[in-house]
User: Fold these one by one.
Assistant:
Number 1:
Amino acid sequence: MNSINQGQLVEIEYEGQQLKAIVIDPNGLGNGQATIGLGFRMGKEYLGISEQAMSKRVTTIDGIKCLKLPSGKFLRVTTILASDGNEYKVIEFGDWSELAQDFLKEAVQGKSKLSPSVQTKMIEFLAWFAVKGLYATSYAKLKGAYTESDDNALTQSLTKANEQLIADNEILKLQYDRKCSEVDQLLYRLDAIEETNSNSGTDWRHWELEQNSINF
């Protein structure tokens, strides 16, 4: 078994991009069970929160660095010299999920100024986080292990499904826009006919609707 060391970098594919995770404590969850997290620099790319904005929330309590969430909760921040020679402020994986949930809850209650795009990023992050975790647990129960090949196959499947969902939404949007355009053109034509024939004594608007078959 390969040894695990603090500061060791782990490349993880996330939504088609490479995410750089960092080992916080090789035995943080038990013997050989490492705690792993993400540096503040990953916040902008995956949650829409800049490293600078997160750093402003860091405070020291009894000698321990913590990040204060909008709700008033605190998350532990560990400063680690990673294997690439760079120093990172790191939050454990589970705490990143807690961070995203806290910000979203504040937004729902109208207490946050997060933009819709940032909120969307957080929702996507949590959704991916949950799906992979559930699959990993299920595979471990069914097969006795969750292997690297399982993870790679799952990542490819989820990425493909996400791309298909985006494509389907684009098609639906185009169809909706086209129907709206057809309705606008119909109403414009009816208004013109009605104005032209307003003194004829004939309900031309009704006649035009009866004569033209429009499929919505």
Number 2:
Amino acid sequence: MQRLLKNLILTLCLLMMTEGLAHPTGNMVRSGDYVLWSYVNPVDDDQHHACIMIWKPGIQPSVLITSEYPASDFMLSAQGEDIYIIERRFIESSNGFEIRILKTQPEGLPTEIWPWMKDHWRIGEGGFFMLSEDQVVFGRYPDIYSLHKGKTPIKYFEFTEPVKRIRNLEKDRLLLLGDNSCWLTDHQGTILETWKNITKKEVSNAPLDRNQVFDADLQNDELLLAYWGNRSFITIENGAQREILKLDGNFVPHWVSFYDDMKLLFASEMFMEGQNPQPKLILYQTDEYSEIIWE
């Protein structure tokens, strides 16, 4: 049974990869002094019980919450001191997903604000944020949707390009990640800034042969990217693209987040034999100095 479940989870991970949503599912956010990210607990858990890790300077990373369900995932959205959590579980009997939404603060305990419901939209995989405790906005390739509790999703706004991932920024701004572009918009979809051709035409040794950017963050006109296809983290500022870290071996970049004048870079070591990815969270300060926060 354990081997069957492990193969099922691996199949699900590969299915997500074929949809351009590389494993692991989840993200990394900052709330005040704290940084939170999704993973599994323990890291080598064959049944894939999702967890949320939490860290701030001066303390060791620790587990904030672990799902009681196998084949589960957590996805995060930080809005000020409030942290919204989508917990997802796979229901084998129905061959489908269910989600619920939790709310917490870095030093509090999560409480449920949306009970378990069927999820036909893979809500949260492409990023999400809450307009209120009764309304969630989420990215679902190639569009952006709004969902009121108990209702059916509708488009949040029309956008002319396909969108893979959304990130809610301060000052009512959104960062949208596309196939080969990134856009800063307002909540009506008006484009305020565009970054085109963020990937190279050709890369070598691209994980799963996918030349894509997986995650993006923006601060003070500096765009920070997790460039999955090139196994690197890059920045774009004043039109100039710069590689700040190239990963070795089987490591691949997943998530990014600014932390004051520093950068948090999350990668993992992926194996094709079915083992869980092994994580590495790096606090990058300069080309000469970086610190491994968690591995």
Number 3:
Amino acid sequence: MEKPLTRKELLSHLIAQAEDPFCSTQELQDLRNILFQSDTFSGMNHLYLVTLYLKKDFSLFSVTKEQALEQCALALKEGNKRAYFYFYLVYKKDGDWQKARNSLRLSCDFKDREGYLWMGKELLSGELFPKDERKALSFFEKAIQAGEKKGYDELLFHYLKNGEKEKAKEILVRAEKDSYPLPGVVE
């Protein structure tokens, strides 16, 4: 007896089916309806559609800003707290700074690893929040602890940029121990 597909695997198969060049127009419409309306994927289908809105370069399905926000709300309703991070991305893209700030804060409150990473980036850039290097570095550490290894990249880049070679070496060693080899050599 075969083991049943997980929700994530099932969603991946649906997306692959939609991307198949031999998918008929009717099948594509049916898949679109499933992605927009289904509540069986724990909100992952809704966040996939938000991703299509954010990328805009090539999308199987046209997604408007309003639909993207609606899809975020549906994902949240289905218990997917990652939706807060996606709200942040949509609001930031469209220049609604206050809602972007609030959504990113909520994302971090729910310990979203990408939320931590982007909070660090925002604190370093000073665009969305007042610039705060110390807090930014702590959010990169939180991202790493939550499993977002790209936090190592951010820490390494920051230390190298600021000439802090010993700290950069420490990050290289930590990342290597965490099975995340980073490029570059620090003398």
Number 4:
Amino acid sequence: MQQNIYDLLEDCQTRIYNALRKNTRTDKEEAYTYAVTHVNAMDAELDMKWDELKRLGYIVHKGSLAKMDDVSLDVNLHFCIDIINKRMRINFSSPISPNAVQIVFFSTVPLEQSTVLYEEKGTGGTERRLKVSDLLAVLSYAKKFAEANLDADFDRYNGELMAIKTVDLAINHKPVDKPLNKSLHLVNDVLTEFAKVLSKDKETKRTASGISLLVDLAIDFLVRG
């Protein structure tokens, strides 16, 4: 995908998330109008999603923006997010979860250290959880890994360190002005490489002292949560 198209999709996504967070009709209408105006064939894909709802037996009120009720507008905005993420997934091998984007960058309240970001059932029915404090620890390890292993690749090194810092700031509820999916993709890339090293190097595993499970959970949070 050409970079300018990616940036456009990301810009639309940011506008929509911000509008949903502000929760005002004006902001939502502006975000919706921007998306259908700037994203190629967005109108057609929205119509397909509404038609699918109709086939499933739901009462559909899509109409024009002026006649659209608040619920239908919210549905349209979430449809837009789905469409944008589908287009991003087509062009990236590891899709980033919209839920992860929303939690990391658009939480309406400060995230406590004990806040659970992701959980899954382990073997024997046990629950495995990734808390905010765990993700911050994983980011710290990822930073050290990037510094130790990517110093010869300056562009990539700088990009991934910037992405790690961006996510760190967002998780700590501090303002950031950086690309969203792009940052999470870069963090996911370095964590995936880190996980591969952990799985092969027993000494690194011992040194990491349990970080391997957290890395796996962090990756799952980014792509599945």
